[in-house]
């Protein structure tokens, strides 16, 4: 399956060299190659291991110890009348010893709260991965739209160049017929050189935009293609609900507050006692007077009666941190709400600008048609035609840029709503 996936990716990369790369493919490649996202995913695995480590603290602790001891032999001799002396050894000169010790907490709230905090921190890392993923997608989307804008400017300038060339050709014919002065031809040539310079700059800007997009994607991008967007339905209240539910930064702030509440519980739990069971087994050859096998089972209860008020200070820090986290959550919620409203207003403004640009294009086309007819009949000047062309090109440029600015605003809206797909 992995080989098939690599083969498909290789074919797509080869094809993308000669054809425009779609936005979906650009996003996929960027997500695969982004180092920040890879780092966050590794950090997620680290958090998982830390959680398992905390879980392990809730299980029994088993210690094994084996030793070989060398000491001075200790004994005394006792004799009874009529019997040979008897030696009693308290401690052998050398002897082995094996010890097994098992301890299990029965009541240890700090350890349990520590596990809960670690488990919640693991979910925080999931949200950090989502935040990084959304940032990567947004950056690629913005770069893709900027490339489309640069491409649109190139196309507008190319159309302007065609118009000026056609006008220059008409002006030269009319000059040969003696209907206009040479200055009209010269004016058209100057305008032609100016448009060529502007077109050269526009093409350079487009190449720069493609280079930056290639950097984000991790492969060479030769061209981009138009984007088809799905419309987002819903009023402001509905969009606010989506933002509250989906925005990863907001969800992260909420989870942090939950972690801070757990940390406050942990600080309180430090005032509680701990209880557990201990079991020990020992086998030794140190003396013949005592059993070789020994064992015991005990129940213990520990309580830290005084620790220099450190627990009180820790509890106060936890409470203050929780208050801070709640204020930061509310501040972030307000900032996101303001940004959402700003983007929605921006979208409405751009839509109105697009409608005005459409009307300007219609007016400019009619104005250019009249100016060209008057010029051919000798009733108008070359300046009037060139100005009419510039007016039309400006209207087209505003329309294309506004249309793509609307796309960019749509992607900004997706980012605020926390939606990966658009």
- Provide the structure class: alpha+beta
Largest sheet: 4 strands, antiparallel
Strand content: 5-15%
Number of strands: 6
Number of helices: 9
Strand arrangement, major sheet: 1-4-5-6
Which outline best applies? elongated
Low-confidence sequence ranges: 10-18
CATH class: Mainly Alpha
> At the fourth CATH level, what is the homologous superfamily?
Outer membrane efflux proteins (OEP)
CATH topology: Outer membrane efflux proteins (OEP)
Average pLDDT confidence is 87
Instruction: Give the helices and strands as they follow along the chain.
Output: HHHEEEEHHHHEEHH
CATH A-level architecture: Up-down Bundle
Number of domains: 1
Oligomer: single chain
Query: What's the end-to-end separation, in Å?
Result: 28 Å
Give Rg in angstroms: 40 Å
Q: Helix coverage percent of residues?
A: 55-70%
What does this 3D model show about the protein?
The strands form 2 sheets. A 4-stranded antiparallel beta sheet has the order 1-4-5-6, with no helix packed on it. Strands 2-3 form a two-stranded antiparallel ribbon. It has helices at 2-18, 23-33, 35-56, 109-176, 182-217, 236-246, 248-269, 310-376, 382-417; strands at residues 61-70, 74-78, 86-91, 94-107, 274-284, 293-302. The protein has 9 helices and 6 strands. Residues 10-18 have low confidence and may be disordered. It has one domain (20-72, 87-417): Outer membrane efflux proteins (OEP) (Up-down Bundle). By secondary structure, it is of the alpha+beta class. Helices cover 69% and strands 13% of the residues. It is elongated, with a radius of gyration of 40 Å.
